[in-house]
Write a sequence for this structure.
């Protein structure tokens, strides 16, 4: 085979990014203000001051940035706030996922109650809540927690935009080892040698 017909293989390094959690992801899994109010009213739980939570977190981050402004450069401030906002958004997203799981479990337990032939799902003794009722109440509490953390995250994102002057987006870092593991690379080389 001549060198002109030989194909040259160049290894292109593919850089994989670890995707960060966005505020939109939080909004998709955490209850909004209307739903949080409905949960509170339906379960006799306190109605949260959604706007107050959001405004407090926005104001406190802005005030914190003001006190740090003399000691940090613009880039350092951006990195600092990026981390703080990322933790708020990540926390809200985790709470939203947990809430979604609790809702699924409550729905499953409630659906089982509709089957009259199941003895294991019968209500407990008089004066005690059924297992399905406890799961619904737990899901409601998790919904309010997820909503509160969503409002904190929204306030943090607004503060970032106020201080930095641009919209917040999650930090996407490169994965440490974007390629194959050493063992996998060695196995591929060995198999290639075998033909």
């Amino acid at each position: 085979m001549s060198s002109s017909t030989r194909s040259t293989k160049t290894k292109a390094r593919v850089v994989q990014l670890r995707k960060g959690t966005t505020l939109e992801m939080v909004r998709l899994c955490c209850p909004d203000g209307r739903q949080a109010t409905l949960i509170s009213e339906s379960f006799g739980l306190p109605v949260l001051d959604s706007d107050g939570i959001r405004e407090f977190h926005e104001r406190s981050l802005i005030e914190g940035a003001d006190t740090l402004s003399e000691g940090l450069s613009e880039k350092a401030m951006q990195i600092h706030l990026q981390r703080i906002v990322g933790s708020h958004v990540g926390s809200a997203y985790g709470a939203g996922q947990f809430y979604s799981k609790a809702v699924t479990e409550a729905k499953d337990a409630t659906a089982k109650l509709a089957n009259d032939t199941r003895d294991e799902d019968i209500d407990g003794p008089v004066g005690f809540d059924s297992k399905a009722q406890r799961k619904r109440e737990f899901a409601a509490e998790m919904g309010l927690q997820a909503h509160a953390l969503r409002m904190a995250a929204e306030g943090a994102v607004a503060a970032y935009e106020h201080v930095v002057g641009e919209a917040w987006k999650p930090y996407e870092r490169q994965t440490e080892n974007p390629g194959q593991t050493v063992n996998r690379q060695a196995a591929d080389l060995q198999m290639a040698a075998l033909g």
Q: What stands out?
A: The first strand starts at residue 17 and ends at 18. The mean pLDDT is 85. The helical segments are 23-29, 33-43, 50-68, 74-113, 131-164, 182-194.
